[in-house]
Write a structure and sequence with these properties.
alpha+beta, Creatine Amidinohydrolase, five-stranded antiparallel β-sheet, four-stranded antiparallel β-sheet, 28% helix, 22% strand
Length: 269
């Protein structure tokens, strides 16, 4: 989940807090991995939300979403997971819908444990025969994220990361929306600095060791315009009804290469 107006604070974590961030990040990665393996033809979005609730509570963590009520949403979100399908891309509110063959799904999750939050999202296609254009769009968001992470070191500027993301997405043929993007994260889910998905290199906040960032490239196949679902007041959809993709990781700026915190245990074993 994303926020155009993050809390006006930038936290720099100490080593003990960073250790807790690693545990929270691993939890987010593991839950998303478990949910993805359960996403089959016929899986209901409300079941995914219930499974998320159970895994969060079992881990002794707290949802960042269920009581979330920012100005751009209609009241309290009321769910534990964002489930965006096909033309939905951000803030997808779970509802009574069974996944169909070929659905392009994004799952977005943020939790807090031991006083530190982590946030991640993954896009994938349900079924055995995904459309090549869907795979290409997901791949573009993943490559954009990787390009930004590669540059995320102390002394770099936020604009370097934004430029890297935007360059990959534009080179792949996608328009980039700047209303929503990545953000700082720490004791709360949304903090400064805002990380736009396009920008000018050499500009913006200078990265410091101990800073956590949630980087999240997202695109829509043929537009950069969003519309809000009139029924739930939360789900953001492509204005043209085209399909969408969204990839996100929480990373820690360290004295060397950035550390991806939200990988599942299976990805780092």
């Amino acid at each position: 989940m994303e926020n155009r107006k993050a809390t006006a604070m930038i936290e720099i974590l100490n080593p003990a807090e960073l250790d807790r961030a690693r545990m929270t990040g691993r939890l987010v990665g593991d839950i998303l991995h478990a949910l993805r393996t359960r996403c089959r033809i016929g899986t209901n979005l409300l079941d995914l939300d219930q499974w998320t609730k159970e895994m969060i509570e079992e881990a002794g963590a707290v949802s960042c979403y269920v009581d979330y009520a920012p100005p751009f949403g209609r009241g309290r979100f009321g769910h534990y997971l964002c489930t965006a399908v096909n033309d939905a891309v951000l803030h997808g509110m779970p509802h009574d819908y069974a996944l169909a063959d070929g659905d392009l799904v994004t799952l977005d999750l943020a939790v807090i444990k031991n006083g530190v939050a982590a946030d991640a999202a993954v896009s994938f296609v349900v079924g055995a025969d995904p459309a090549p254009e869907d795979i290409a769009m997901i791949d573009a968001t993943e490559r954009a994220l990787a390009a930004a992470i590669e540059l995320a070191r102390p002394g770099r500027r936020l604009g370097d990361l934004s430029h890297a993301i935007g360059e990959v997405l534009a080179d792949a043929g996608y328009l980039v929306n700047l209303e929503f993007g990545g953000h700082g994260i720490g004791s709360t889910m949304h903090q400064d600095p805002h990380v736009a998905n396009a920008g000018r290199p050499g500009r913006g906040y200078t990265l410091r060791s101990g800073l956590l960032l949630a980087l999240e490239p997202w695109v829509m196949a043929d537009t950069d315009r969003l519309v809000t679902d009139p029924d739930d007041g939360w789900t953001l959809r492509s204005a043209t009804g085209c399909r969408t993709a969204h990839t996100e990781h929480t990373i820690a700026i360290t004295d060397g290469a950035a550390e991806i915190l939200t990988l599942p245990a299976s990805a780092v074993a």
